[in-house]
Specification:
- By secondary structure, the chain is of the alpha+beta class.
- It is built from 3 helices and 10 strands.
- It has 2 domains: 71 residues, no CATH class; 139 residues, Thiol Ester Dehydrase, Chain A.
- It has a 10-stranded antiparallel β-sheet.
- A hairpin with a 2-residue loop joins strand 3 and strand 4.
- Helix 1 packs across helix 3.
Length: 229
């Protein structure tokens, strides 16, 4: 495996959601399960443009960069909840208050980076008025078939703005995703996020991707940890 520099998250490392999708799909093949049935823990920032090796170990898979353990993928059947649906106009209003436009700790981020508006996803999750601990924004899916890794990236970054990224930047540490089937191309969708818990060391969040009428397309549960500068 190798992660192209296009899929940057924080500077000089891979986007967490994209990397987790890549690792989950490779591990699922090795374990004989579906990507929906695994969870990924990141131990170190996934490097860019470098070879990565996936090695099975019992009912898990380790991802290595040379002699450094990057990630562990385990089978998981833990239930994942959903973040509440909001209507499209609410999502649009929330996106208008995306904090990353004022100051972004990771402007190179493939999914939500303000320096990647031309070649990234352009996600802009902002606070939902009247719902503390909730964010939302629209996402127009590409006209071409939507790959699973792109949905993982969107569900990841939506959860990264449920806390103050300017004051205390955090990065993805653990991610499990359950997709509900194919995501339609060329459609205006809505991604929402809910803060489940917060501590001095990190946070846990739930994110969900919806069709405009409220039909679910996918959900995720993630743990975020303080960014080690």
């Amino acid at each position: 495996m190798r992660i192209d520099r296009r899929f940057t998250g924080p500077a000089n490392s891979a986007h967490g959601g994209y990397a987790c999708a890549l690792f989950a799909h490779r591990a699922a093949d090795l374990l004989g399960v579906e990507p929906n049935d695994v969870a990924v823990t990141l131990h170190a920032p996934p490097p860019l443009d470098s070879p990565l090796c996936a090695e099975p170990a019992a009912r898990r898979v380790h991802v290595w960069h040379r002699d450094e353990l990057i990630a562990t993928v385990r089978e998981s059947n833990v239930a994942i909840g959903t973040a509440d649906f909001v209507e499209l106009p609410v999502a649009e209003q929330s996106a208008a208050h995306f904090a990353g436009r004022i100051a972004h700790p990771f402007p190179t981020c493939f999914a939500c980076g303000t320096a990647r508006l031309d070649d990234g996803v352009g996600l802009s999750p902002g606070p939902v008025r009247g719902r503390p601990g909730t964010v939302a924004c629209p996402w127009t899916t590409p006209a071409a078939p939507v790959p699973d890794w792109l949905v993982w990236a969107v569900l990841d970054c939506a959860g990264g703005w449920l806390f103050d990224q300017q004051a205390e930047p955090m990065v993805l540490a653990h991610l499990a995703v359950r997709l509900a089937g194919g995501v339609p191309p060329g459609e205006r969708t809505i991604v929402t996020g809910r803060l489940d818990s917060r501590s001095e060391h990190g946070a846990t969040v739930t994110t969900t991707l919806y069709r405009p009428g409220g039909g679910e397309l996918g959900r995720a549960h993630a743990t975020w940890a303080r960014h080690r500068r």
